[in-house]
Amino acid sequence: MTRRLPAMSPVLSPRRRFAGALTALVVLPLLTLGLAQLRDILNLPSQMLLYLIAVGVVALVGGLLPALAAAVAAAGLLSYYFIPPLHNLAISDPNNQVALVAFLLVACAASSVVGLAARRRAIARANAQSREELRRLAEEQAALRRVATLVARGAQPAEVFAAVAEEVGSVLGADGTNIVRLDPDGAATVVARVGAYPAEFPMGSRWRPEPPLALAAVLDTGRPARIDDFSDTTDAYADAIRRLGLRSGVAAPIVVEGRLWGAVAVGTRRERFPADTEERMAGFTELIGTAIANAEGRAQLEASRDQLRRLAEEQAALRRVATLVARGASPAEVLAAVAEQVGSVLDADSTTILRLDPDGAATILTRVGDRPDVFPVGSRWNPEPPLPLAVALRTGRVARVDDLSEASDDYGDNLRRMGIRSGVAAPIIVEGRLWGAIGTGTRREHLPADAEQRVADFTELIGTAIANADSRAQLDASRARIITATDDARRRIERDLHDGTQQRLVSLSLGLRLARSTEPSDRSTLQAELGRAADELDEVLDELRELARGIHPAILAEGGLSSALRTLARRTAIPVELDVRTETRVEDRIEVAAYYIVSEALTNTTKHARASCMRVAVDQTDTCLRLSIRDDGIGGADPARGSGLIGLRDRVHALGGSIEVSSPSGDGTAILVELPLNPA
């Protein structure tokens, strides 16, 4: 706020002129009465001298114009009362006429001299007052600039409060300055003070000022107030002020964005503060209001930034977990990731995921945080309410506890030993059934207010991952059962063909040949027919044996995978380089799958690849059987176009294995397969 200096006048004020006129009206009649009594003693020159002095006094008091009027009035009084003929303005003696004119001239001249002197003195006093006012205004503006610089620099409100208290006390010459904040309950909290102040009310203290204290009036009305007599005040604060010797106080409100925030109060041991003190304090209170508004704006901005950062981190964590779920990661991998991400997002000290078992107990599947020995993975617990995990496992709803001191079971005791003070838990629902829960805790006073919802967002992903894993497990089990049933059917058909139809055909062929040998040689035609029938029967038997081998090669069951693959390689139309580095027998369904994978690959290469050779390599580790099948054909094999590779992939996946096909156009085809030795 900028305050203006009072305008300077080159002449005396109207008040001075009025005082001069009033002086003339009083002094001249009194002087006339007195001289009338001394008419016989004083002669005319003496009388004129006394009137001249009276005119000078009027000139000193009221300046030139009242003095001139007094000179004219004095001349009239002299002519009427003291120059013959008396009581008549006419003057008969020429000497008296000259004397009166001389008096009037001297009186006017004296009025001019004395009036101008009085005017110069008045101007000098006005100049001195203006200089003092200018100095005071300069000091005030400098103080305001210093505070404004702090505000513009973004200083904290506490720093601005201290500066304002110091500057206001200095500018106003106060003996004590207080800044208080109005609290919601109506009490006032001291936030800054300088100079004399009661020791009973230190920084940070709270009290309720009572009228007629200026602070009480300001906090009640929101308008400036003053008090110049503390004798009528009765509260403890006023008693302390009186003990300090303060006699006058002024307070001004601090308004922040239209609301009353607090007040600034000053006190002095002098009789009273100047009349413009409230106005001068307003500039400082405006700066305080601006500083507080700026600080609140910055705090809101920082809060928004923190919320945006937190939201971004949470969304990133959810995306990471969702990516694992979409990629088909195992539930164990998803649970570990969720525990890690929840602990990071909520800045928790411990995060645990439990599975609800059929007997009502809970098994810890994953845990993140310190003291892994307290809740080891795989341990089983029966947490009891009011623990959040117990509530979530019993009700299927999110739960929160910010005071774990009431938890009385072993689980609660362990949490307290870890220093956990606040906890949140959310249920994990899988396809409509309660599967388990996730709980997180902190050593701080409490977790964020929205922690329940934020944890629940992750449990949805856990439920999806578990449901997907269950579906994949059911699908794989179904595939395995179908393939096992198909292989069993192949074996049964092969056995039935070998033990039934094939043996009967062999017996029939032997019977025909025996009949041919027993017929007389003169029946050559019959012998020829029997020979042709026997030959055709042998061909049918060979075809039947070939069919039986395709359904299920007997050599696989008799000699193992190595022998079966060597037989398969010899029967392939193109050269096959076979490298089998295992002679150990593995589970029957693994051998059957490996055989048919190689068989199907050899058949596809022979039919479509235009290859000149193939290489088949088999090796075995402790956990899996590896197959590598490569050719130098034209490449371009694509399972998506319906080739035999689809069947290979289904068989491999049904056993929990993996298959990779690389078939760039013009560069041959490579198939890499891994079959687990102990499939689920």
Molecular shape = rod-shaped
Radius of gyration: 58 Å
CATH topology of the largest domain: Beta-Lactamase
* Amino-to-carboxy terminus distance: 84 Å
Per CATH, the class of the largest domain reads Alpha Beta
Largest sheet, strands/sense/barrel: 6 strands, antiparallel
Q: Helix count?
A: 16
In spatial order, strands of the major sheet run 3-2-1-6-5-4
The CATH architecture of the largest domain would be 2-Layer Sandwich
Secondary-structure content class: alpha+beta
User: Unreliable runs, pLDDT <50, ≥5 residues?
Assistant: 1-10
Tell me the β content: 15-25%
- Report helical residue fraction: 55-70%
Q: What is the CATH superfamily of the largest domain?
A: GAF domain
